[in-house]
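Hypothesis: this fold can be encoded by more than one sequence.
Test: take the structure tokens below, design a sequence, compare later.
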């Protein structure tokens, strides 16, 4: 080996050593800077400061994700009680930067940050009388849970910026904000939007010649938090200060509005006169199972038609007559058992290809009525139908037809080519001949199973 070779090798070693020392210096310097950046991020996570976190990150401040971060950390998605709970959890936050997890490659680096806070899952396994008791339990809790955030950084303009803000790892820190704290999340006394509640069909504060009274109750958006919680309610009906009806319990949470009905079809013992609810003052009270009164409303009824046998209707399930003059002519009414597919008073099996609503009327009746059938796949869609302005699927005119000594309106709908009708809700609207007056409405349902499954 000659001196020139030795020189070359020595030079190579010097260069390699120089590069090695240079790389080690950069890595050490990077670690120090990344740890400092991680500390700033951790402090602002503890403070729930969205704007400062955005300053420390690569996420655009004007993006939808940035807006979600601000609203989320500000608690805008939470109800009052859940916000109190989450604020108490936030105050228990602490962090530790795991320097041993630091890695770097060029202008990219990552490091783990452990966040510890009150173990909300174990806390929520207990029962609490109110939100204040739950908050107190959070404050005094010795049980702690730890969640690790793998913070990733990118170096831009000599500054290490957080590059995974709003990532799944970041969001895992805030899962407690989605925790189910039970009915404490909803103030049942304020669950009803009383400004929207109305008596359906009432005019001038009174029902006249009505077979049924119907209170439409609207809920505020918090009602969705009760879905699947098993929170039940009942409603009571009072007439002239005397309780006459209490409903069966039903669950709250899956509907934004409900109808509380009372009449002969609801209560067989309802006091009637001329086939109408007897004159009186009525009160309906909606109450949660725990005794909280959700809503109370009052109305009155009056009867102006004379007692007459021709006004007797044997079955009011599935329809309602609105015009007193027309009601006085109806002897019987109901959905017909067409092809043997009727499985209840107003329901047909899924194999039904025809439905028919039949009204027997006084023999002297010659009124020509206009009728239209409307369809909706679900109850929520059916509630949107406006029979006075929407176009029916099928419509027509009819006068009473004589059959076996009686006179009948037989208003039907059938599918094309004998196929089964679509599953869903069918609404029949019956109008005066000039289409200006709604005489009656009837509704039935095509069920999801064939007739044989119900017999």
């Amino acid at each position: 080996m000659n001196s020139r070779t030795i020189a070359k090798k020595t030079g190579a070693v010097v260069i390699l050593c120089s590069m090695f020392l240079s790389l080690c210096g950069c890595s050490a310097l990077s670690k120090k800077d990344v740890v400092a950046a991680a500390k700033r991020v951790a402090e602002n996570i503890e403070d729930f400061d969205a704007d400062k976190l955005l300053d420390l990150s690569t996420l655009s401040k004007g993006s939808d994700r940035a807006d979600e971060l601000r609203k989320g950390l500000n608690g805008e998605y939470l109800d009052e009680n859940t916000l109190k709970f989450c604020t108490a959890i936030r105050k228990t936050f602490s962090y530790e930067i795991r320097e041993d997890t630091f890695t770097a490659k060029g202008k990219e680096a990552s490091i783990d940050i452990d966040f510890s806070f009150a173990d909300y899952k174990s806390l929520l396994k207990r029962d609490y009388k109110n939100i204040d008791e739950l908050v107190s339990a959070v404050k005094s809790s010795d049980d702690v849970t730890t969640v690790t955030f793998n913070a990733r950084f990118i170096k831009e303009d000599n500054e290490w910026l957080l590059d995974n803000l709003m990532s799944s790892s970041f969001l895992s820190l805030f899962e407690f904000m989605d925790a189910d704290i039970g009915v404490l999340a909803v103030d049942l006394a304020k669950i009803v939007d009383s400004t929207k509640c109305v008596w359906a069909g009432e005019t001038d504060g009174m029902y006249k010649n009505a077979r049924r009274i119907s209170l439409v109750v609207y809920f505020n958006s918090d009602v969705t938090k009760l879905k699947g919680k098993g929170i039940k309610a009942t409603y009571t009906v009072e007439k002239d200060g005397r309780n006459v009806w209490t409903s069966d319990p039903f669950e709250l949470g899956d509907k934004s509005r409900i109808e509380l009905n009372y009449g002969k079809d609801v209560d067989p013992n309802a006091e009637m006169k001329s086939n109408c609810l007897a004159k009186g003052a009525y009160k309906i009270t909606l109450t949660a199972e725990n005794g909280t009164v959700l809503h109370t409303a009052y109305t009155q009824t009056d009867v102006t038609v004379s007692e007459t046998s021709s006004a007797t209707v044997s079955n009011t399930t599935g329809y309602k007559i609105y015009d007193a003059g027309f009601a006085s002519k109806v002897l019987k009414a109901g959905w017909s058992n067409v092809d043997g597919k009727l499985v209840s008073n107003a329901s047909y099996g899924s194999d039904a290809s025809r439905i028919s609503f039949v009204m027997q009327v006084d023999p002297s009746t010659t009124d020509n009525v206009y009728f239209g059938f409307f369809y909706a796949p679900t109850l929520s869609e059916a509630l949107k139908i406006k029979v006075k302005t929407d176009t029916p699927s099928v419509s027509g005119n009819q006068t009473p037809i004589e059959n076996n000594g009686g006179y009948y309106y037989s208003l039907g709908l059938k599918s094309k080519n004998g196929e089964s009708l679509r599953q869903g809700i069918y609404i029949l609207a019956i109008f005066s001949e000039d289409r200006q007056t709604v005489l009656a409405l009837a509704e039935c349902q095509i069920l999801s199973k064939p007739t044989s499954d119900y017999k």
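Residues 3-46 form the longest helix (44 residues). The chain has three domains: 24-185, 191-304, 308-455.
Hypothesis status: open.
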